[in-house]
Design brief:
The protein is of the alpha/beta class. The chain has 14 helices and 10 strands. Helix 5 runs antiparallel to helix 13, helix 5 runs antiparallel to helix 14 and helix 6 packs parallel to helix 7. It is globular. The protein starts with a helix and ends with a helix.
């Protein structure tokens, strides 16, 4: 593998099937050298199994430490087995009107994730649930106002990152006003720039100001920002708006490039190249190994042919390195004994009960 290919692997976060690091998977990771792995429920069975899995993933990576991520928002977007402390969806925390509880929930999640070797959570959702017809966000959002989403989003970022788990604000520049699901098709938002500034942007601005380590793009087209391309592939939205206007220099991940909002309109290789050209750092491909290979080859070709400049490549590599240096080093393997002490422990379960009780009190008081 050439040096360029070695570097290019570091740009990608990938998923896989199975619950162990098979010889085949280990060989693939050693060959492609991804910068990150994303885990799903299909990969996770128990506390002990997850400890073994993450340790073995780190062991077989040529560039340990890997980012090992998960979507653990709470509620219906939860990947962990039942022995973990599974918090309710974000809108329940929103109904509690408590940044303290939001911080505590995120900190608790971070402690349990870190105990089993997961160092990144694709959270918080910073979308404002402003459209009742939205089929994909709904209770995943903290609420329907930018102030509430900003307050609890900042608390969540703090709870995660104070406990050395990388947070990821999503889905920039906002997925709350869509009437379709980007997993299934490409949503189009027709709102004016003024409305986006008032409703969608504030939680992301606040998170950037507070130091959110990473951001995830939305596979959504915003006609007021770019009438041709979805945000993930748009230089106007990523390079101009996010990087230049909002001064964000953290790591930007794409949402999964296998989602139909992208794959129905672009080949996965073209999409990966366009995303990096637009200013994204890490294309995310959650399942199909052949698509991972295709995308890596396409980016390699684009770098070799100067469609992606050495400077553009170096920017992303530097951001990823800086992120890992801050949150993942010094790297130590996790142990089953430590994990058992943290996962689903009594104090964590007590916090979960407290959140449900607080919500009940608030709902009764407001009735």
């Amino acid at each position: 593998m050439t040096i360029a290919q070695d570097h290019i692997g570091q740009l990608f976060m990938i998923g896989f099937d199975g619950t162990t690091v098979s010889a085949d998977l280990a060989s693939f990771i050693k060959e492609c050298q991804p910068g990150g792995i994303i885990l799903f429920a299909r990969n996770l069975e128990s506390t002990e199994q997850i400890v073994d899995l993450t340790n073995n993933l780190q062991r077989c990576s040529p560039h340990s430490p890997l980012l090992i991520s998960i979507d653990q928002e709470g509620g219906r977007v939860s990947r962990l087995p039942k022995e973990f402390t599974i918090f309710p969806p974000c809108d329940v925390l929103g109904q509690c009107h408590s940044s303290e509880l939001a911080y505590a929930a995120a900190a608790t999640t971070a402690k349990e994730l870190a105990a089993v070797g997961i160092n990144m959570n694709m959270s918080p959702v910073l979308d404002v649930n402003s459209n009742p017809s939205n089929p994909v966000i709904g209770d995943r959002a903290f609420g329907a106002t930018p102030d509430l989403v900003s307050e609890l989003g900042l608390a969540t970022v703090g709870g995660l990152q104070d406990n050395r788990v990388v947070a990821c604000g999503k889905h920039f520049p906002g997925h709350g006003d869509t009437t379709s699901d980007s997993h299934k098709e490409l949503p189009v938002v027709t709102a004016s720039r003024d409305r986006l500034e008032r409703i969608e942007f504030p939680p992301f601005r606040r998170a950037i100001d507070s130091g959110v380590a990473t951001m995830m793009t939305a596979h959504v087209q915003y006609q007021a920002l770019d009438a041709q391309r979805p945000a993930t592939l748009s230089p106007a939205i990523i390079s101009k708006l996010l990087r230049q206007e909002l001064y964000y220099d953290g790591v930007v991940l794409t949402d999964d490039l296998e989602m139909h909002a992208i794959i129905d309109h672009y080949g996965v290789g073209d999409a990966a190249v366009l995303a990096i050209q637009a200013g994204c750092d890490m294309p995310l491909i959650c399942k199909d190994r052949n698509r991972v290979i295709t995308a890596m080859q396409a980016v390699t070709k684009a770098v070799t042919g100067s469609d992606i400049s050495p400077q553009r490549l170096a920017q992303s590599l530097a951001r990823i390195r800086r992120l890992k240096d801050r949150y993942l080093l010094p790297y130590r393997p996790v142990t089953i004994s430590d994990a058992r002490l943290a996962v689903g422990c009594r104090s964590h379960r007590a916090l979960l009960r407290s959140i449900h009780q607080t919500r009940e009190r608030v709902v009764k008081a407001e009735a």
